[in-house]
Amino acid sequence: MQFNDDAELDTSQVQDYRGSGGGGGGGGFPLGGLALGGGGLGIVGLVLWLVISHFAGGGGSNQLTGQPNNNQINQCKTGAQANASQDCRDVALVNSIQAYWQDQFARSSKTYRKATTIFFTSRQQTGCGTGTTGMGPFYCPADQHVYIDLSFFKELQTRFGATGGPFVEGYVLAHEYGHHVQNLLGTSKNIGKGSGATSGSVRLELQADCYAGVWANHATSTPGANGKPLISNVSQQDITNALDTASRIGDDFIQKNLGSGQVNSGSFTHGTSAQRQHWFTTGYQSGNPASCDTFNTDNLG
């Protein structure tokens, strides 16, 4: 993946709370969201889960802990810097993902509300409770922020065995913004709290994977702040790396390789590795969000 050197970045979509003190309090995440993460393996905090899809109730303060220090982020001005720096790359990816959805919503006569991505380390208070690094990236509907400790991308390689690569960061962020889209459209309000192979939670996660694939299809044609496309090239290897990551974060893979060793489909919350690959591919090949209706199909892949 390459960014256009002269593309213009918008740093206002990212806030940098790394090293700001984080802090606890707030009683943590409500059980309805946290306990189901990772297929109910009982090892949340030891194994990183890619997403926490939604939370049962509030349970937290809308006040972020600490003060942002955006000095480093604010240096990210151009695509050339995105090619050279992970921080700037992730700013550019957030810009691209949100620019795509802003345009897509406008085409449907809807208004897209931008969500801020929060970079943090260790712990951070959110509108959904206290988030920690061990939870992996997540979206909080209560404050409409995406939260991520960037060390997660290294963890994908060292703990999960994923190939990694810059485009994987785009896949992960696009998945989280898929949850923001679901929140704006009201999709996530009616899925229930159950788990299982065909549960609403699984369908929500697979749809977010599909939405990530849709963005990937449009990544090289989505403009930045100055109207020039942010991303100049997405290679087949980039897509292969994203699919490899999807294969490492399925409920079956996590349960078998990072949990008890036994696969229990009754506790699935995110879908199998094959299903996650299938729905990312569906979105990528179609480039159409309408192809991502995981709620009205008996065939989840």
Count of individual beta strands? 8
Largest sheet: 4 strands, mixed
In helices, the fraction of residues equals 25-40%
Count helical runs. Answer: 9
Outline, from the CA principal axes?
globular
Poorly predicted ranges (pLDDT <50, ≥5 residues)?
23-60
User: Looking across the biggest beta sheet, what order are the strands in?
Assistant: 2-3-7-6
Strand content: 5-15%
* Sequence of secondary-structure elements: EEHHHEEEEEHHHEHHH
- What is the average per-residue confidence, as pLDDT, rounded to a whole number? 85
- Structural class computed from helices and strand pairing: alpha/beta
* N-C termini distance: 28 Å
What is the gyration radius calculated from CA atoms? 18 Å
Question: What would a concise description of this structure say?
Answer:
The chain has nine helices and eight strands. By secondary structure, the protein is of the alpha/beta class.
Folded structure, characterized:
This protein has 301 residues and is an alpha/beta fold. The chain is 38% helix and 9% strand. It has helices at residues 31-34, 79-84, 86-107, 152-158, 166-185, 200-218, 236-248, 251-258, 273-286, and strands at residues 2-3, 14-16, 116-119, 123-126, 129-132, 138-140, 145-148, 231-233. It has a four-stranded mixed sheet with strand order 2-3-7-6, with helices on one face. Strands 1-8 form a two-stranded antiparallel ribbon. It is globular, with a radius of gyration of 18 Å.
